[in-house]
Amino acid sequence: MELSALLLQVLNGLDKGSAYALIALGLTLIFGTLGVVNFAHGALFMIGAFCSVTVQRLLSLSTVTLDETKTDFLGRPLEVKTPYVESWFGESVGQAMIDWSVPLAILLAIPVMLLIGFVMERGLIKHFYKRPHSDQILVTFGLAIVLQEIIKAYFGANQIPAPAPSMFIGSFDFGQLVGFDPGVLMYPYWRIVYFLFAMLVIAAVFAFLQFTTFGMVVRAGMADRETVGLLGINIDKRFTIMFGIAAAVAGLAGVMYTPINSPSYTFGMDFLVISFVVVVVGGMGSLGGAVLAGFVLGILESFASMREVIEFIPGINQVVIYLAAVLILLARPRGLLGRKGVMES
Amino acid sequence: MLGLNRNDFLMLLFVFVLVAAAPIFLNPFPEGSTFAQFNAGYPDLMQRFLIFGIFAIGFNILFGLTGYLSFGHAAFLGAGSYAGVWMLKLLTINVIPAIVVSTIVAGVFSLMIGYISLRRSGIYFSILTLAFAQMSFALAASVLTPITGGETGLQTTLSDPRILDGAAAGTGNIPAPSLFGLEMGHSWKVAVGDWLWTFNVGYYLCAFVLMIVFYISIRIFRSPFGMMLKAIKSNNERLSYTGISPRPYTLAAFVISGMYAGLAGGLMVSMDPLAGAERMQWTASGEVVLMTILGGVGTVVGPVLGAGIIKYFENIFSKINDGLLEQWFAFMPDGLADFMVTIVHPFVGKGWHLSLGLMFMLVVIFLPGGLVGGVTGLFRRLFRRRSH
Amino acid sequence: MSSDKTPLNIPLSRRSVLKASAASAAVVTAPMIIPSSAYGYANEPKGDSVTLGFNVPQSGAYADEGADELRAYELAVEHLNGDGDGGMMNTFSSKALRGSGILGRKVEFVTGDTQTKPDAARASARSMIEKDGAVMITGGSSSGVAVAVQGLCQEAGVIFMAGLTHSNDTTGKDKKANGFRHFFNSYMSGAALAPILGEAYGKERRAYHLTADYNWGYTTEEAVRTSTEAMGWETVAAVKTPLTQTDFSSYVAPVQASGADVLVLNHYGANMVNSLTSAVQFGLRNAQANGHNFEIIVPLYSRLMAKGAGENVKGIFGSTNWHWSLQDEGSKAFVKSFGEKYGFPPSQAAHTCYVQALLYADAVERAGTHDPCGVAGALEGFEFDGLGNGPTLYRAEDHQCFKDVLVVKGKENPTSEFDLLEIVEVTPASKVTYDASIFGGELGTCNSGA
Prior knowledge:
The complex is a heterotrimer. By secondary structure, chain A is mainly α. Chain A has one domain. Chain A has 15 helices and 4 strands. In chain A, a hairpin with a 5-residue loop joins strand 1 and strand 2. Chain A is globular. Chain B is mostly helical. In chain B, strands 1-6 form a two-stranded antiparallel ribbon. Chain B has a two-stranded antiparallel ribbon with strand order 2-3. In chain B, strand 2 and strand 3 form a beta hairpin. The longest helix of chain B has 25 residues. Chain B starts with 5 loop residues before the first helix and ends with a helix. In chain C, helix 2 packs parallel to helix 11. Chain C is globular and about 80 Å long. By secondary structure, chain C is an alpha/beta fold. At the A-C interface, helix 1 and strand 4 of A face helix 2, strand 8, helix 7, helix 8 and helix 9 of C.
């Protein structure tokens, strides 16, 4: 095994890990602050991804003209579509806007996801704080199915491509920077963008909780909700905002992920289980733990998918995340950085 | 009677009557009538009601009594299924060894997983069981293909040895699972007026097994062992202060519920000799969790009810297509009929998941504690109001 | 007990029984046990209609493909019952179908959701057989489901007409006397692709395979490897990827440094869309290796997948069972009636399902009975034409259709959202025919359920 091959998988692991961490971050915020088992978290991620698709569709709204010189599959004149943005802003600006629809979708996703988060918390989750976890599971799972089915009814079940802007297509040659041969250590631009984006969002959430009064109150509320309430602070309102932020983080993770995997309505369920594993392996109630666990599992998964490793232990790539989760939880009872007494009974 | 108090005995009797007469009352609509599609009285679905009922009853012994939420119980159902099919392939087409061996194999498997997972509690326990089940699923679907048939599933074949009966040699047809020659698929059809009832051998075998395990579960709920499990749920720490270690009790509950799952798997392959890997996937584990919560955690009869409702949605609602809708609303004026079809269309056929999700939400919002818990709570409130 | 004395899974059709008993004017008030001898075979239709069971994925990743299959079936039923323009019935070489239903009975159908899970698919098929009295089950979008449902139909004694299933196993290792497949398989893909690849990319290539870790993936990898190695290609490595994998970056990343100059993606559906997207992101399309342009191959293509992968499919070779741009009379007739009814061209899944429904109906007409053994007899060795893939043989030994296979390429300049693939070559049936015994398995004998 060459050094460059190992380094390549480290890069891969960091990239995968940043995705896991970002998805798990929102989940652990809800777990930690509100004590709610939110099975609809994957659905929030999926709705974020469909914000990209929606923006793409909106920008591609077109006028239809008939081209008599060409025919469609039934021999009728071919319909030619010209997007409105092209006729409004000129062809080059219009095409650039469509090209940049994924990053532009962030602008839509933030307000939409905050709103969904607020509505969900006020309308539904709020009534379940004092209910057993089992009721929370059932209601959020039901909600996840409903959200999925709505997306399926509107967008269909097939995957919908939502590519990155064309300037991010292609790879950056890390190898040449550190003296390897050209082409042995390449990494796609968009994945580097995703990694940096994830780091930025994670840092922003941490800074928000660490350095603002709001964050301080929320952290205090996580530790001891009743006492904070007794101090006359309206913790409920802050928790609503926290839920909105968690939803927005999940949504942003989804928006930026669409160029990596074309989204479909099952997008969220694919990530639901893994994000729970990441949160728990990181340790309940620990934001840092979730991020750390995301990276650990991402890197392990990447190494396990190497040909040399699979040949040595067949099937290891199928189970490595779960195997690692078992071993970590057996070695460290509360995960990597978990606190005592959170979600233990 | 039977070592039960009066209420429990009446409940057992009620369930017995319900199960015995299910082929009749599950077909409330006459054949060929507009709503015959809602009839559930055909062997496959009736068998599924009972088999998933057994699975959920077992799950409830662990979750309902001890509060330990296993998210990997489908692994035991899957292990039981594979063991069962291998018995049908290697030993005999008689279902008895398949059912017995699948229960034992699931028991051993759950002992191993339970022993490790029960070192942790709360959500850490849930994730450990989930991890084991997902590993079982992933391996069964891929590298273990020679043993499990992979993604396609394990089936009986013409070339199976079946050392005890070696049946089928020469007939060119794979024998169907049977109980001493009585085939599981065999049915008696009885027509009364426009109604048609199907009495199926396999169904009544499942019913027989269900009654036994249901009785056992009531006895467990009411026994000192059950009390101990409930104590673990309500206050684990205080229990340890009394010098009692809770782990042997929770492990016993875990293994019992694992064996219930294996038994369900064994019955499933006896009714239909195929074991697929996706039976072990987390969605399958999640399904039994949902069944139990939907029916009522910790209630004796709730899980069976929850299992029945989810399977009913999956099998009946998914089969309602636009053609049927048009038939139903045909009596209305054209415009209104089209409108009704448009309104109902998203909830049936390919949209059956939507109805299921909505039902989950409505039940848990309006009936805290699931169907049984919620309804008894409702009655209690009404009753109290009246007596005041 | 031998199975010829006792009925095996007697799935009686209730509707037909009641109609029959009503006809005999015996107004039943007292319970009446219906003897199984009332039927010559499972679900024998006795009234003036016959029920077919359309079992397609309606939820999960293949739901759109399933929806297209269902559209094709509804169209086929319309044509069989004499409505619409008749579609391929006009171009079909056999003239047994006259648009008057099947054997004079009106065709009705029931639908169900396979969820692309063998268990759910069997439950759905069993309900069609036990509850609705379906005399034939058809549809599905994966080999796992096809093999499972085929096994069930064999036990229950009804005919199974497979939908989209591409694994060699369906008519190989797991073939059954009651099951029939019109769709092509992995072997044919490999055999059809190899010469075209040799022509386009040369005979000295080094291939790297990524293979979905389940039965279909195994047979496809084997087929492509065997046929390309026979032509002189070398296989550098073959790595199995989990079926549930969504991000393929860690599998794609090492490809370029491996010394390979071709990447073969033995993936279907979401797996294929995601792995191809990763491969393109890693710049493999523009890479150079061993003095060649680096190339990517997708052995099994479908238009819906191509749509999901978007721009990434351009110029990429693969094979497909059928494509709407074919210009033979049968294909044109089908595209016309499908397109006029639904507004877009049919997919290959829709085509194979439509054809299977017609072939079943035709076989029943020719046999003069719905009895599975009679129908099987009429289908075995049946030669036909006019259904879109040229002259076709339903081989008796393994119930597999042998017909032309299309080698296609992602279109560089699509003119519409449907115009994603272009046909590069129509490989004649003779080039993809193999010996029936090479995959093992036993057909057994037909089961009529009584």
